[in-house]
Amino acid sequence: MNPTIHTDPTVFVIFGGTGDLNMRKLAPALYNLFLDGWLPANFAIIGTGRTKYTDESYRETLLEGINSFSRSGKAEKKKWDEFSQHVFYQVSDVKDAETYKEFGSKIDKFNADWKTKANVIYYLAVSPNFFPIIASNLAKAKLTADTKRVRIVIEKPFGHDLDSAKELNALLATIFDECQIYRIDHYLGKETVQNIMAFRFANSLFEPLWNRNYIEHVQISVTEQLGVEDRGDYYEGSGALRDMIQNHLLQLLCLVAMETPISFDAAEVRDRKVEVLRAMRKFGPDDVRNSAVRGQYSKGWMQGKEVPGYREEANVNPESNTETFAAIKFFVDNWRWKDVPFYLRTGKRLHQSASVITIQFKDVPHRVFPSESSESWQQNRLIISIQPEMSIRLQVQAKRPGLDMILNAVDMVFDYKGTYTNQAPEAYETLLLDTMLGDQTLFMRGDQVESAWELVMPILNAWQNKKSLSFPNYSADSWGPENAEALIARDGFHWFTLPLNGKK
Ligand code: NAP
């Protein structure tokens, strides 16, 4: 790869440097950025945590992570030796304000060696409880003042509800300028997700149809086969609404529903997205009952293997009220989308792992063909498949070859694998590079996060305050509770699924 963009000298300080996220995602992403030539000649990665590593033993641990999880496979010795010379470790408890001075000394030394002032990126890959203390301790150690060069990356979840998100935003605002704060939603870094904007705004074909006059409804479905696994502790305090809808699914909805930005400038794009959240219809108590469905999986079988129900998972309350599935009907009340339903669905232990956006267009105003010709009649659909298949397919009606006039739906397909030979970068590669470049387009602004919380709070409150008597209400390997089918069937639609062999 020939990088088209120059990056400045950078020091990454990774809080949670011994954790799962760093091992599986961040370290492999940084290594691949290095392999592809995106990192500057002068860069340093300082991992930190309480575990006692030396630089050397820390490098060995990172290598294991990279060998297991890097998209480019096992590290080549020569390349790894080169990369690992830039990796360091510092033992530090985030609560110990004294140790932050050591970060300062290390950064000063890099600056002196490199004869420059490097960008410094503090990446908070730790429990959200630690976000405030780390930000405050960085400020106390005077490590945050350079608004041009110092950035802080905050992992999800950003807040536990609207109040805690506001509190965290308020604290960060006392220390950092908004242009220094990078709130990550890794979904936004996915190639297929970024492509939604390219697809919408670089083609003249779709925009004239992209409104209530032509679109009947939209579905956004992010389903997982995995259960909660060993994350019961975390998930008990979260649930599908907080873990997926408030961030990933609402961000996808914003990309589908946003107005055309006048440029690809970060502020402009983020303004257009937050307008969508503000235009979304707020839920009253009856709306929660009528337009939102929650579910929790029971034990069952997945691919020939018996799997426990959610309440039987480790660190889960045997009478847990936490939802592992949510389906919600939203509306965006503006000229473009008035009365077009947006159905969002997400859940664990479902039949298929897939993230798919389906846009169903309205039917033709009049069918000119005899009824027998159109038994398999289907309205036009645009299906944006984010993962695991990466494709966009436009389903149109066509005449089946033969002497009779039989119609059926066929796909016009753009699929990444068939079109491009180069491997798509991982979302974290894109996002880390953007952080280095100071580009916030794919990160969430404070008001965006708060608007998303505001929208889900009535649902969250209703579900928390009223224990579900029907849990568990769907079995592993199903498509979720029956009520979720009813939610959409009441409007005359059904949930779409995309067979993963790519065929209809
Ligand atoms: P994890 O595996 O539990 O790692 C936690 C990290 O925090 C460890 O490096 C641990 O290091 C460090 N830590 C804990 N207490 C500390 C203390 N007092 N002082 C210094 N370091 C301390 O968690 P994770 O899965 O990596 O997740 C980290 C964050 O990323 C969370 O906010 C999570 O929600 C978010 N996230 C994770 C993923 C993922 O795929 N894992 C995906 C999206 C978002 P020591 O034990 O060495 O101190």
From TrEMBL:
Active-site positions on this chain: H248
Q: What pathway is this protein a component of?
A: Carbohydrate degradation; pentose phosphate pathway; D-ribulose 5-phosphate from D-glucose 6-phosphate (oxidative stage): step 1/3
Protein name (Swiss-Prot/TrEMBL): Glucose-6-phosphate 1-dehydrogenase
Which parts of the sequence bind NADP(+)? R50, D93, V94, K156
Which GO terms are recorded in the biological process aspect for this UniProt protein?
A: glucose metabolic process; pentose-phosphate shunt, oxidative branch
Entry binding sites for substrate: H186, K190, E224, D243, K348
Q: Name one Pfam family in it.
A: G6PD_C
Q: Which HAMAP family would you find in this protein's record? A: G6PD
| Matches recorded under Gene3D superfamilies | Dihydrodipicolinate Reductase, domain 2, NAD(P)-binding Rossmann-like Domain
| Annotated family | Belongs to the glucose-6-phosphate dehydrogenase family.
EC code(s) of this entry: 1.1.1.49
Name the job this protein performs.
Catalyzes the oxidation of glucose 6-phosphate to 6-phosphogluconolactone.
What are the protein's UniProt keywords? Carbohydrate metabolism, Glucose metabolism, NADP, Oxidoreductase
Swiss-Prot/TrEMBL catalytic activity: D-glucose 6-phosphate + NADP(+) = 6-phospho-D-glucono-1,5-lactone + NADPH + H(+)
* A Gene Ontology molecular function term of the record: NADP binding
**Which EC class, in a word?**
oxidoreductase
Tell me which residues make up the Glucose-6-phosphate dehydrogenase C-terminal domain.
197-495
**Which top-level group of life is the source organism from?**
Bacteria
User: What GO cellular component term, any one, is given?
Assistant: cytosol
- The Glucose-6-phosphate dehydrogenase NAD-binding domain covers which part of the protein? 13-195
